[in-house]
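Researcher: Sequence recovery benchmark, item below. Answer with residues only.
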């Protein structure tokens, strides 16, 4: 076990290297999965303004609460193939891949991004709220492989620059030609004078963007943060908090652990089968998923548009007769789409786009309609 694992014993709430910066900017701070994090910046317009900035220009997020587990060694590839649901052999060094770790039942330990650093060296970027559980799971199941897991959480600052102008902004601060860095690819470069920054063209907003990883030294973290915002000022770039991060990912139908995915929800139910090819060799959860695919699922995740109110997490979904048939997993007003949207688990026949449903919201019955997802798809860039 890496010495980095001892940060589990750090004082609560944990603070990122940018904590004082967020407070100086007047951020509304909240406890989130054991971290003191900004939820929005009222002085810059708050959640609505931050959301719109990312859709039309850019926004910068401090997401240093996310975890990173490094797996390296002679059998690192075999270990990753067993531990994660996607096919790691499909990616090359410098490429990233959406995946998940699964329980034997085909349900989720956590979803994550796999970064391939080299033939025998990988990162798993994991969720903050599942970090201890994920680390324990990795340690318990990699003992049979000749490789070493290291928990690097707490050592890294992670910033997410997201939005259609993010490339224009970051290009001012690095010599790397970002036009050559394709989606779900990564490189290392100098950013804002800081050397050896990992740059990944990934994100959690349904927009183009980049995630930057570098050592958590306070002055360096503040320099990169400040220079991103300064370079982004002509493009309407704003500091963004967890509130906008959630509404942006919901418009893009990106799953959130504990909501759309959990230890009680399978890959097929969540509609993530495209990331879980069954034709490859054995991996954790494969047998259960093979059985469920043959039998069919009893519920599916669907999108809802709701009239007259917001359907929050846990609210009941009703069919036309008024019978409860499912439950909302996430719901919000969509600031860019200007409508009330939600994700919910319902029987497959009720998940088809156009199905007429309802949601019980504080003893009120609101009309709802199943719709195709994602709710938002970013426009394709025109080429000449």
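Model:
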């Amino acid at each position: 076990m890496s010495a980095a694992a001892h940060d589990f014993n750090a004082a609560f709430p944990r603070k990122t290297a940018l904590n004082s910066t967020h407070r100086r900017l007047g951020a509304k701070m909240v406890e989130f999965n054991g971290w003191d994090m900004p939820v929005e910046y009222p002085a810059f317009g708050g959640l609505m303004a931050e959301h719109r900035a990312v859709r039309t220009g850019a926004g910068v997020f401090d997401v240093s609460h996310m975890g990173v587990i490094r797996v390296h060694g002679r059998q690192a590839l075999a270990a990753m193939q067993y531990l994660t649901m996607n096919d790691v052999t499909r990616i090359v060094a410098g490429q990233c891949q959406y995946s998940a770790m699964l329980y034997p039942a085909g349900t989720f330990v956590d979803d994550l991004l796999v970064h391939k650093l080299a033939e025998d060296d990988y990162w798993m970027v994991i969720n903050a709220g599942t970090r201890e559980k994920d680390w324990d799971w990795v340690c318990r199941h990699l003992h049979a492989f000749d490789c070493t897991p290291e928990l690097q959480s707490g050592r890294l600052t992670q910033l997410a620059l997201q939005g259609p102008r993010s490339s224009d902004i970051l290009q001012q601060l690095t010599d790397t030609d970002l036009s050559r860095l394709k989606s779900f690819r990564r490189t290392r470069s100098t950013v804002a004078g800081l050397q050896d920054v990992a740059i990944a063209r990934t994100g959690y907003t349904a927009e183009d963007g980049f995630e930057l990883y570098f050592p958590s030294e306070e002055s360096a973290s503040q320099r990169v943060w400040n220079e991103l915002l300064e370079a982004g000022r002509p493009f309407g770039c704003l500091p963004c908090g967890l509130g906008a991060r959630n509404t942006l990912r919901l418009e893009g139908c990106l799953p959130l652990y504990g909501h759309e995915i959990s230890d009680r929800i399978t890959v097929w139910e969540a509609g993530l089968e495209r990331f879980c090819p069954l034709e490859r060799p054995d991996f954790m959860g494969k047998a259960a998923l093979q059985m469920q695919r043959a039998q069919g699922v009893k519920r599916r995740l669907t999108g809802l548009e709701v009239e007259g109110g917001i359907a929050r997490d846990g609210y009941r979904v009703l069919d036309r007769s008024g019978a409860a048939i499912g439950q909302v997993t996430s719901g919000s007003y969509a600031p860019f789409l200007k409508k009330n949207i939600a994700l919910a688990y319902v029987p497959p026949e009720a998940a088809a786009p156009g199905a007429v449903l309802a949601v019980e919201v504080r003893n009120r019955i609101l009309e709802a309609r199943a719709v195709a997802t994602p709710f938002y798809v970013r426009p394709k860039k025109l080429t000449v």
